[in-house]
Amino acid sequence: MSKIILTTLNARYLHSAFGLRYLYANLGNLQVQASVQEFTIHETPINIAETLLAEKPSIIGISVYIWNIIEVTELVGLLKQISPEVVIVLGGPEVSHPPDLPAVCELVDYVVTGAGEVSFVTLCQQLLSGQKPLNKIVTGVTMPLDQLKLPYEYYSEEDIANRITYVEASRGCPFKCEFCLSALDKTAKPFELGAFLEEMDLLYKRGARNFKFIDRTFNLKVKTSVAILEFFLERMDEDLYLHFEVIPDNLPDALKVMLERFPPNRLQFEIGVQTFDPVIQTLISRRQDNEKTKENLRWLRENTGAHLHTDLIFGLPGDSLENFALSFDQLAALKPQEIQLGILKRLRGAPLNRHIDEYQLRYNPSPPYNILSTRDIDFQTMQRVNRLARYWDMIANSGRFTTTLPLILGDQPFWRFMKLSDTLFKEAGSTWKIALKRLFGLVYQVMLNELDVLESDAQQVLQLDFQRAGFKGSMVFSQAEKVEKGIKKGTPNKRQNTHQQTAD
């Protein structure tokens, strides 16, 4: 039985709660009374409540994020109905910026804002000794990094075998991009390199091979970055995979030399471009050398085997559909493997919120608080780009249409793909649950009827991608027509057929 349970709902089982492990590692003498329990947003809150309360805890600490706030709210409501005596403490980015707090904070006993390694353990000590702190909002206290107990030993064997291993060589960010909560940081601070690499070595020896660095600016200090890459290069095997978030316009020669030494498909770089518009960059306090960014992306694509996951944001203040298309086309010309089309979201505490009135930023009141319209982008246009982002992920980012994509994009990537997106939605009526074989047929029809691609050219490239997708035989282009919607009257569904076969 655990008096203290640290828990959260991850977006997927593959993910692991790095922050909870930090809290657990720094609980001191309370650690023997504590446990970490992770769930996913796909599990039912009532079953999660049953599992948590079976431990008969005195305190439940829950990490709250933009992606789990709905499920956490339902879970907290159940916990307070079933066992109101259990003290519930919330922490995490979604509850760290009072007075801008979600409604669930009204239901709980305490909220820890910001860093929790010191404040949470102090709160637990008070509660377990019979004290009742007067303030419901507990301000997080930042502990010097060299005083933090690192959490890596608390990845279980199951975690190492089945989940991403999150690690950090530094904490914070020196940049002030207003759409990001890291803009609130004063600077980036590194962990002591020797101690960090010792922990990485222990993880590697335990079998960890999927390392995701959560540093906001991995390549900020090049000497440190090179040392970390050298460490992993010495241990390179066919299973090792490293993910880094990097500054796009900072790629000095020392780093290039190191990156060229890595074998293909062992590195993934998450590269936030966001916009190429210098006026918008100035407006949102983003420092970025656009020409250097393009030069670096081009060099990475041509000289390394790294997978480039790049980001653009639609809906920034001052942006328009036509202007966004310019940024998209410039990035598409650099041919990164992925372009993540992010729709602007309202993050609690983000400095970007100062622009809400002037630029008429209208956000969804429900999570994930996505932008619905702005002064320069109406709701219908926002919906079109939302659909485009989904289809882009299905067709371009998936890698299933690699041969076909250049023919789709032509010399006007954004507008041609927008035409594809609009037509796909008209024909399919959805951006979800489109069978891959049907998607091939729909793309074929759009290429012929809307994008003016020659039939022979379309068939040639689609056939290659069709086979690469694992389908046997040839794509039957004569049958690649619009699929009738609905079901025929009087036709039993699959379940009815099964019952009938059993009866027979």
From TrEMBL:
One cellular-component annotation, GO: cytosol
Positions of the Radical SAM core domain: 159-383
Record-linked InterPro entries: BchE-like (IPR051198), Cobalamin-bd (IPR006158), Cobalamin-bd_sf (IPR036724), DUF4080 (IPR025288), Elp3/MiaA/NifB-like_rSAM (IPR006638), rSAM (IPR007197), rSAM_horseshoe (IPR023404), rSAM_sf (IPR058240)
Annotated B12-binding domain residues: 2-134
Keywords: Iron, Iron-sulfur, Metal-binding, S-adenosyl-L-methionine
Transmembrane segments: none
Matching PROSITE patterns: B12_BINDING (PS51332), RADICAL_SAM (PS51918)
PANTHER family on file: ANAEROBIC MAGNESIUM-PROTOPORPHYRIN IX MONOMETHYL ESTER CYCLASE-RELATED, SLR0320 PROTEIN
Name the UniProt record assigns to this protein: B12-binding domain-containing radical SAM protein
Lineage start: Bacteria, Pseudomonadati, Pseudomonadota, Gammaproteobacteria, Thiotrichales
